[in-house]
Amino acid sequence: MMAKQVEHDQLYIGIDGGGTKCRATIYSAIHGVLGTGLGGPANPLHGFERTLESIMVSTQLALQDAGLRVEQVHELNAGLGLAGVNLPSLYDKIMRWDHPFKQMFLTTDLHTACIGAHEGEDGAVIITGTGSCGFVLVEGKSANYGGHGFAQGDIGSGSWMGLEAVKAVLLDLDELGPNTALSAVLLKHFNTNTAMGIAEQMAGQPSSSYAKLARYVLDAAKAGDVIALEIVKTGADYISRLARKLLQQNPPRLSMIGGLSEPLSEWLDPQVAKQVELPKQPPEMGAIYFAMQSIRRQSEHLV
Amino acid sequence: MMAKQVEHDQLYIGIDGGGTKCRATIYSAIHGVLGTGLGGPANPLHGFERTLESIMVSTQLALQDAGLRVEQVHELNAGLGLAGVNLPSLYDKIMRWDHPFKQMFLTTDLHTACIGAHEGEDGAVIITGTGSCGFVLVEGKSANYGGHGFAQGDIGSGSWMGLEAVKAVLLDLDELGPNTALSAVLLKHFNTNTAMGIAEQMAGQPSSSYAKLARYVLDAAKAGDVIALEIVKTGADYISRLARKLLQQNPPRLSMIGGLSEPLSEWLDPQVAKQVELPKQPPEMGAIYFAMQSIRRQSEHLV
């Protein structure tokens, strides 16, 4: 009885923190979505203070958008999905934050993406954007694969494709590797005529800079360039293996999320591709479901 | 007449700047080597002020070692070999330095390594340490290959081997790639039992941290691990191609320098390996030859 009443009177905020932006959605169990807000980068691995700031900016904008007062932040039950909080030390550090919410429930961005994609139900997700990783949640048990970061992991992601393209072009321009149409494309992109001109501009660049080159690889592969084809097929093969690994755990659904999920789909193993279904809700709604589920679990323990 | 006299009265200092240390040698045309000094990192691409500081520390220690007075720095004709000064902007920035030397002659670390290896004569060098690259100097014409930096170039180097090892191990531990003996080795090295434990410790690490793992790859290859063998052979194949590219330009000699040159030698194409000769002098002596040659050229222009 108590649990039901609490749930119906609640205001929720779902927050999805990412490397480039932070999205917040305010939701009422009675009225549905009330408003949304967009803040800056919120990856605690790349800046802890910045993350808290982006969370607060997106929260304030969502409150405003919802027509709520600034003080009503204290009424919000917050669900947060953030990268890196699978690390206990980072999880604890964020939970020690003197946050303004009524309650705060924290989990990984993968977890909230998965809950969102399957509208609170069990399932699996593959994320392929700047990075790549897989996550599966079945009957309370979760597992994740990949997501080991640039340049040592994240095969099939945009940053990985961009890096493989730069590597192949540098070999080609030094005449120490096979020719590729990507060389002319990247020389033009970097407005240079030497391998060193490309190398210097990319030296020390973050994964997002490499990810910007992924579209060239996809275009060149479509046009039949052998090297670009090899890169795209190697990436897609990894994503297919990752999908089969997730499907072994019998999730009811599998979704792909992120900027490369659509262009990669045609290169996947057809047996895998036909099992991929569209995500039902975005990660910030997943964060709201996570807050709801956490509160329900609390109430159950109280009864 | 004038040129000869100047040359015989000169004191020289040869400076070899590197990513981890800076070596200086003071040399007199009459008495030979007078003293040496060792300073900290001197790669201007990774810290300009730090580089100048390391140059001055190694110079002062060399002066002390030579039994010279601090003020005698003004009598030194300096030859400097530094990474990155093939970039005109960086070359100019260092040449604008208000240096204490009598004269200063600047070139790349590759150039001075090559001049040193062949005692001032024409030749080619391959450097395989933390990074990898090739350089050839024949009749005043030079060319360089590779050296495009971590993680996009420097195939066959220590950092490249370490990165390939980490990639293979993360795939193995996720059960998304073949088994390798390197997995047990790296789990032990990083004192963890998960892929994420390795990924987190290596995230954002510089190339030198990856290079520390190269010895594991070489050991595992010797012990017959298929993945380690593939890494070492791929690296050695690139170095062999690089050597053939340099040999096409008919250098009188070819030398290999750097921590991986010895362990890699047994994996090289035998046709290449038999043409590799030991370097005659270290890069800091190459920097001294460079200063001498530059002064001789000045004198010739003055006559």
TrEMBL record, chains A, B:
Record domain ATPase BadF/BadG/BcrA/BcrD type: where: 13-288
InterPro entries: ATPase_BadF (IPR002731), ATPase_NBD (IPR043129), Euk-type_GlcNAc_Kinase (IPR052519)
SUPFAM superfamilies: Actin-like ATPase domain (SSF53067)
Pfam families membership: BcrAD_BadFG
Record PANTHER family: N-ACETYL-D-GLUCOSAMINE KINASE
NCBIfam families for the chain: NagK_SO3507
Protein name as it appears in the record: ATPase
